[in-house]
Amino acid sequence: MKTILLAVLLLGSFAAGAQTPVVVSDSTIVSLGLGGSAEVGFAFAKGDAVELTAHCSKKIQRVLAFQYPEKQLARDRETKSPKLNFSMADSGIVIFQFVSDAGGHNDIHYHLTRKPASVATQDYSTRVIWEPPTDRPGKPIPRRVE
What is the DSSP letter of 121? Predict the structure, then answer.
């Protein structure tokens, strides 16, 4: 009897700590053609479980997720339905890069969710803006908006 009660209490505590997935983005990238690519960026908190699912009108060459500036987190290749899953070891900005080598239009609809590690990060802002570098010419730099 004690074993059953202990199991019920443990399962209840795990369920209470589980967080509801939060939709970060549900969007479409229109018209990647031959050699086309697009990047989108979002901020995530330490411990977030991140999932990206996408549906492409044509096979996409690759989808990459990397923590800015260059730590690769996940990738998928040569598919019409890419799916990426990873956990954030540290808080940071993640860039999702979609690369297509299909001729003509290749529209990509993607759905991105995060499962927060705790209640404290349930309302974490995932919004990122891109700012021009102030010390040199070059590509814009992503920054999280609080």
Answer: G
Q: What range defines the domain where residue 46 resides?
A: 2-144
Number of structural domains in the chain: 1
Say what the pTM is: 0.84
- Partners of 51 in the β-ladder: 85, 113
Buried b (16+ CB within 10 A) or exposed e, 101-137: bbeeebebebebbbebbeeebeebebebeeeeeeeee
Q: What percent of the chain has pLDDT over 70?
A: 88
Contact (CB, 8 A) for 118 and 74: no
| CA–CA distance, 128 with 143 (Å, rounded to integer) | 5
Residues of the chain with pLDDT under 50: 1-3, 5-16
CATH number at residue 140: 2.60.120.380
Secondary structure (3-state) at 112 = strand
